[in-house]
Amino acid sequence: MSKNLKKGRPDILDRVTPLFARLGYNGVSMRDLASAVGVTPAALYYHFKSKDELYTQAISRVFEQKTSAAKAIMNDEQEPGEKLQIFIAWFVRALNKDKDFRKLLQWAMLDTDSKRLKKLTKNTFQDLFGTIKNIGESFRQQYDPHLLAVSIIGLVLYHAESSVTQQKLSSEKLGQDNAETIARHITALLENGLLTH
Amino acid sequence: MSKNLKKGRPDILDRVTPLFARLGYNGVSMRDLASAVGVTPAALYYHFKSKDELYTQAISRVFEQKTSAAKAIMNDEQEPGEKLQIFIAWFVRALNKDKDFRKLLQWAMLDTDSKRLKKLTKNTFQDLFGTIKNIGESFRQQYDPHLLAVSIIGLVLYHAESSVTQQKLSSEKLGQDNAETIARHITALLENGLLTH
DNA sequence: GTCTATACACAGATAGAC
DNA sequence: GTCTATCTGTGTATAGAC
């Protein structure tokens, strides 16, 4: 009967995820979430036993989705440099296109106190991280794979944050730093470094 | 008279900052903050007109502190590579030593909706960013200074997040990734890149 | 499966005594 | 300058009608 609600839980998660992404767990109330879905809070409690569960399910759905997408473009046998470039291009695009993904990732990294995300992080994000670390293994003669994986994530993630969010920290207009520009920059930086060879 | 309160507002900020850093603005209540200070909420409202002002002052104090520290180690006339190395070493150390600084920075980057941090970010963080971008100028023949600055910040910041927070994403124990290890890694990566020359 | 109505704890904030 | 006491709104969550 419900107006625009297709099925139930999946549709609820669709509508609830952007709110969690933008405002974080503590930044939204069940009333907010319910009105975004188009129902009353009580209706939400029929489908999810608590706000915590609603949040956990919303975020885990997004993460699993992205992780499997990442794996899908990587499982071929490419040479390391190419692999790296492909992954970076995908990751930059994924973070730029799907703002929810990026924000939920950031919120997750701040969610230390409540243990609700510890399992989640270990299940889904670790998976993504493992994929990246795999790439790092190819360069283990030069760098520690773990540190290199962290470097790659940091580069991409922070560029995504800086380009899309409110931060207008550049005095020069850099309107078109779209995904491609950023991806090229990161790839070049990683490959060549700062020295002129 | 107050038990351990030295003066007033500065001491309050000292005690309140760690809470904001750990839990974020929405994660703490005035009651929590007051009891951390050792007073009642009403006492806090005598010194600060709102929770918002208390938060803004707490975070801006930390940022200004760090920004001036960053400038202090940079204003010499060093050559670009050296400058970069010195800055990275300092930044990594600052983020690792001062957990509050790092966390407040993360929270700030997620604080899009409320405009309370827009001015703050533009005043203090922009200052720090400008310093970094200055370094980037030295490499402008290779890279866009803005993008390079973002890259540097992303590298350092994310390493700090990963090494100190709950994220145990490495299967191999990497106990001693202290500031020095990370700084060396980042510096080497930036200077040499991934290619074996 | 969604509603109305509501319980009850806690939020930010203020008044006025001391 | 800090307190007690309290106002008022909002928070999560539930009971029970439909």
Kindly name the structural category of chain A. mainly alpha
CATH class of chain A: Mainly Alpha
CATH architecture of chain A: Orthogonal Bundle
Outline the low-pLDDT stretches of chain A. none
Helix content of chain A: over 70%
- Major sheet of chain A: none
Biggest interface, residues from each chain:
A-B, 61 and 61 residues
Question: What features would you describe in this structure?
Answer:
2 copies of one chain form a homodimer. The first copy, chain A, is mainly alpha-helical and 197 residues long. The first copy, chain A, has a single domain (52-194), classed as Tetracycline Repressor, domain 2 (Orthogonal Bundle), CATH 1.10.357. Chain A is built from 9 helices and no strands. Chain A has helices spanning 9-23, 30-37, 41-47, 51-72, 80-97, 99-110, 116-137, 145-164, 179-192. In chain A, α1 crosses α2 (30-37), α1 (9-23) packs across α4 and α7 packs across α8. Chains A and B meet through α6, α7, α8 and α9 of A and α6, α7, α8 and α9 of B. Chain A binds a DNA duplex (18 and 18 nucleotides) through residues 1-2, 8, 29-31, 39-43, 45-47, 50-51.
Summarize the structure.
The structure is a homodimer of 197-residue chains. Chain A has 197 residues and is mainly α.
Secondary structure blueprint with pairings:
2 copies of one chain form a homodimer.
Chain A lengths: L8 H15 L6 H8 L3 H7 L3 H22 L7 H18 L1 H12 L5 H22 L7 H20 L14 H14 L5
Helix pairs in contact in A: 1-2, 1-4, 1-6, 2-3, 4-6, 4-7, 5-6, 5-8, 5-9, 7-8, 8-9
The structure holds a DNA duplex (18 and 18 nucleotides).
